Amino acid sequence: NAGVTQTPKFQVLKTGQSMTLQCAQDMNHNSMYWYRQDPGMGLRLIYYSASEGTTDKGEVPNGYNVSRLNKREFSLRLESAAPSQTSVYFCASSPDGIGGVYNEQFFGPGTRLTVL
Amino acid sequence: AQSVSQHNHHVILSEAASLELGCNYSYGGTVNLFWYVQYPGQHLQLLLKYFSGDPLVKGIKGFEAEFIKSKFSFNLRKPSVQWSDTAEYFCAVTRRNTGFQKLVFGTGTRLLVSP
Questions:
Q1: Nearest residue of A to residue B51 by CA position?
Q2: Which residues of B, range 54-83, sit inside 8 Å of A by Cβ?
Q3: Rg for chain B (alpha carbons), in Å?
Q4: How far from chain centre, in Å, is Cα A63?
Q5: Three-state secondary structure of A70-100
Q6: Distance CA B36, CA A4 (A)
Q7: Which terminus, N or C, of chain A has the lesser number of Cβ atoms within 10 Å?
């Protein structure tokens, strides 16, 4: 049981390049999340998917797109990377979805992204 | 909007000192409360959680937290810290209603324990 896995672990991009961050969970969880972590700002929600087939914007969605490919996988895409998107990105999942009560989340190891 | 405040951004302690990290939230309804820990270079791990029942919650590694509803607080405590407790600690809150509720994180407290 690997939990939540993310690829890649590290990435360096030039301004304007695009890339997709991959996330997968093997816990049969319903909801999945993408966060970014910046010094002094905690974790900020980018996008989330409450259930397979649905996605919604979080607190800081600009410059990102997501795809909930199936129940296991939730990818985050940067179409045209900017230096302001330099951050550590965490994927998380929760057994709860719509109508859930607890929303305990389980986190992946993170992707450290640098945009030059 | 729901918010979570962690007033101590940086805390420095010597080994064996006692720890208390503050967490306050703004939502007045029923909530679920969490403390996550992030060791250097690692991902977030759940330290403890409160859903209902006894407001004094015990977690892993000797940590505990007390939910005080009247103060909207969920402070984290440990009687005697170790060097290995050096990490960043995040409080998180979600409302406990029908419908989908997101987890809201505080900005974190960075703890440094000197040997």
A1: A102
A2: none
A3: 14
A4: 13
A5: CCCEEEEEECCCCHHHCEEEEEEEECCCCCC
A6: 16
A7: N
Which residue, among A89, A86, A79, A16, has the nearest Cα to A47 in the 3D structure? A89
Q: Which residue of A has its CA nearest to B31?
A: A102
Under DSSP, is residue B85 helix (H, G, I), strand (E, B) or coil? helix
Q: Which residue has the tokens 């505080």?
A: B106
Go through chain B and tell me how many residues it has: 115
Each residue's pLDDT, cut to its tens digit, for chain A (116 residues) gives 789 999 999 999 999 999 999 999 999 999 999 999 998 888 999 999 988 889 999 989 999 999 998 999 999 999 999 999 999 999 999 987 665 667 788 999 999 999 99
CB A93 within 8 A of CB A29: yes
Helix, strand, coil shares of chain B as percentages rounded to 5? 10, 50, 45
Count of residues in chain A = 116
